[in-house]
């Protein structure tokens, strides 16, 4: 179906249920057309005069920016119609067809939409009906439930019903139609008659129709790795209590051994991912073991809570860092040291930017597994895009929209700055387009590089697509080398399995990385040493500042003889050669590790000489 016909069909269908003022302005839906996001720009405006902060209403990737504008909306006076319109419009444009619920806070999302339902003016309310809704029944029901349980509903509904019943019916119909647009069948609960029955007849049973299953609310995949690291009060109260009390020091020693990650416990895909993570950062502890041991007794809970302050663990779940009322029941009481990208949906919209920054303030290790394999996969995708056990949306169309979104700017959410970030580890990176490269560049550029701050290590697992095409965009290495040269110690690029001999021989990556490196520090280099030794194949270079060693480039070939020494594509005036060889990872026969260039480039003296000025 052509785009024009598609839009015409949609408009004619919308007019059956929506007045012209709403239907004509409705945005193109996820299953219909992605559209041109550049057409959605709003001018940058000032926030409330009390802060005089400048918000960027064109940035639809930054979570920090969204949180600030979200907070601005709730602080706006009801009579500040223009400001409220701008905030709602941005919220709608931020949650475009490219955004999916697995990467944003669905609770904060539901709270905002429910709040807009009560808007006094139609001008503000009608902006929300342009929203591309989430494809999760649980989230939609939560929005309805928030409206029904709001203490304002009784007075609000009666006032509208007595003064403008047709306008009230229209608003309710538009609201539910917007949220249920792409469903096979409408939920059919949130109607004028339904709310009338609750308000005027006191029908308590009607409210129970919106109860959401706790399991499906987050829309998690059926994956053990997604268990939330949160323990409720009743879990602690009902924990076993031992009569024999051991000293805390002894228990800490015992418990510390039980928290080690068991690589044999996980499924194959998780074992591969965490093996890669642990090869580059061996200090991860087992999240599931943390929860299991913490629930043994109150004493164990207290000890675990104290121990994990300085541990790196995957905290996928809601954190209550400032909840003083239930502090004794909070397992995680300090900002985490480790942040996996899947946890970005647990950074709340509604607690303000200071809380979001506080959550990220201690992060030292950032990991991410790319979704790009789903973009080119021939079979089903790896994610559940609607609620567990629900089939309320066309699965093929939803998968198709998701595959397209993965490589589009707007799909990924950029996290708040991580000022103490040291390690970045990327798994299954294809590098289609520049979507993930932009995300990594944002993280790199938002990390400070002075006074003890700065990124030290990057490890990335590079994979071909199903057609055997190498597409990896590694432009993010440029800001990494430019900004974090003083602290950077190593970069390792690992190639996954089926790379051919001629692709290795080309050494495009080494050429590109070293060229960037030379360009970034603007200093003369001098080739000092070249060695080719016996056995498998071994080549090494000492690349130096004039008279000062700065980089030791050393690469080994263990199981194959791939002798490759080529001239590097280099700026005029530089004399530099490269050498590389490759090895097969003994722990994983499916992966070849190319430890070349920055893969084994050790910045031993980089800290001292990065700013050393040398005249040509």
From TrEMBL:
Kindly provide the name given to this protein in its UniProt entry: Uncharacterized protein
Q: Where is the composition biased (Polar residues)?
A: 1-14
Specify where the region named Disordered lies, as residue ranges. Answer: 1-24
Its taxonomic path starts at: Eukaryota, Amoebozoa, Evosea, Eumycetozoa, Dictyostelia
